[in-house]
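for the recovery benchmark. tokens below, seq after
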């Protein structure tokens, strides 16, 4: 229908790679922050939506610059190297569980492995007790509804309720870290905020919002990549031997998975002033939905876009672009590479024993079941 299309519900849908990339990198576009939300429909004023407005990807400069800086280098080389053994241990444990169950019949890989690894990785990094992982995972599934294109009233209610519980959880966690500071990132962010913000309450609030968003950002997205990688490799098995033979190709395979079926299919931006985009002038304050999934299959950017190819190389928009580029991409990549490396070296052959199931969503992809059995 075109690279930019007026949306029937207002605003515009952007489908080409070139325009999505341009909007993400151009400072003329802002994110739908708290100010924009309060001056728009009640859809944007629910507690869940307001919580998102307090999170890093929904802040505009200069607030965004200040908060992004407060994170420090989130996963510099040395801290990623320190995390690697714990991710390897988690993968080892989960694959042992998976292969044990596999001997008895088909296993939902998504439930047993992909849903678990991201919460174990970020949970250990943030020093969250393992007994809380299940709760945080369930609350995240519900919270994400507020970020969908057309959430139903009951989905919004679930999202609001999950938001309230997450707020309570993280308020308690911050209180605890104040009492018992450690070397974990939450304690580190508290120290950074104390040095720049004289009001203790505001410092706590900033770290609360950062920590809460980290959990929301890290779970479903990474789970989707893990299961999608396995699904695509089993659907296009020609790639399995080259990857087993040369594990150095695994990072490129992960990038091709991220291109082929990105976890986030839609990113929103607002025109700061009347702005020409393709053949339209988008009025100031109007929203554009960047359809990342479509951009990743744009034939002008990717020849034969529906072909899954390890040799494609090149960049993609799965982690966004510009000032909001994903701060946790290195952790997500580490998990995916570690899992694929271990899975490809298993002394057994796997196959998809049934069609994968997806939750009916537009913005945030969510596989609910990936049945796998021994070949
Ligand atoms: C495959 C997994 C992941 C995907 C596909 C993903 C995708 C994205 C995207 C598209 C954005 C930009 C949103 C926008 O421009 O509006 C983003 C931002 C962000 N992500 Fe991720 N993410 C992933 C994993 C993670 C993880 C594991 C963490 C934390 C450990 C994380 C933390 C963040 C943060 C803090 C931001 C906000 C950056 C900013 O606004 O400056 N993400 N992510």
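predicted aa per position
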């Amino acid at each position: 229908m075109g690279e930019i299309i007026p949306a029937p519900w207002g605003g515009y849908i952007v489908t080409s790679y070139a325009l999505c990339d341009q909007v993400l990198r151009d400072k003329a576009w802002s994110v739908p922050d708290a100010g924009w939300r309060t001056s728009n429909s009640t859809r944007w004023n629910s507690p869940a939506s307001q919580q998102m407005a307090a999170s890093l990807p929904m802040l505009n400069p200069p607030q965004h610059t200040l908060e992004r800086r407060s994170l420090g280098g989130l996963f510099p080389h040395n801290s990623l190297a320190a995390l690697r053994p714990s991710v390897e241990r988690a993968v080892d444990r989960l694959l042992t569980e998976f292969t044990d169950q596999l001997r008895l019949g088909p296993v939902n890989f998504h439930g047993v492995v992909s849903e678990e690894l991201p919460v174990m990785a970020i949970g250990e990094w943030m020093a969250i007790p393992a007994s809380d992982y299940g709760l945080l995972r369930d609350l995240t599934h519900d919270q994400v509804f507020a970020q969908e294109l057309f959430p139903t009233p009951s989905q919004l209610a679930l999202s609001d309720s999950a938001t309230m519980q997450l707020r309570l959880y993280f308020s308690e966690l911050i209180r605890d870290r104040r009492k018992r500071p450690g070397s974990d990132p939450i304690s580190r962010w508290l120290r950074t905020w104390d040095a720049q913000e004289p009001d203790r309450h505001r410092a706590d609030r900033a770290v609360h919002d950062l920590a809460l968003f980290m959990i929301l950002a890290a779970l479903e997205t990474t789970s989707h990549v893990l299961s999608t990688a396995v699904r695509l490799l089993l659907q296009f098995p020609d790639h399995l031997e080259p990857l087993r033979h040369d594990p150095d190709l695994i990072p490129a395979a992960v990038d091709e998975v991220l291109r082929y079926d990105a976890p986030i299919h839609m990113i929103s931006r607002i025109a700061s002033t009347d702005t020409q985009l393709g053949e339209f002038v988008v009025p100031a304050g109007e929203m554009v939905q960047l359809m990342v999934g479509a951009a990743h299959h744009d034939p002008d950017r990717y020849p034969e876009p529906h072909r899954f190819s390890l040799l494609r190389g090149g960049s993609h928009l799965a982690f966004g672009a510009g000032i909001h580029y994903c701060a946790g991409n290195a952790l997500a990549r580490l998990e995916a590479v570690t899992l694929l490396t271990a899975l490809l070296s298993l002394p057994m052959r796997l196959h998809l024993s049934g069609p994968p199931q997806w939750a009916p969503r537009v913005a945030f992809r969510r596989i609910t079941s990936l049945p796998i059995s021994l070949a």
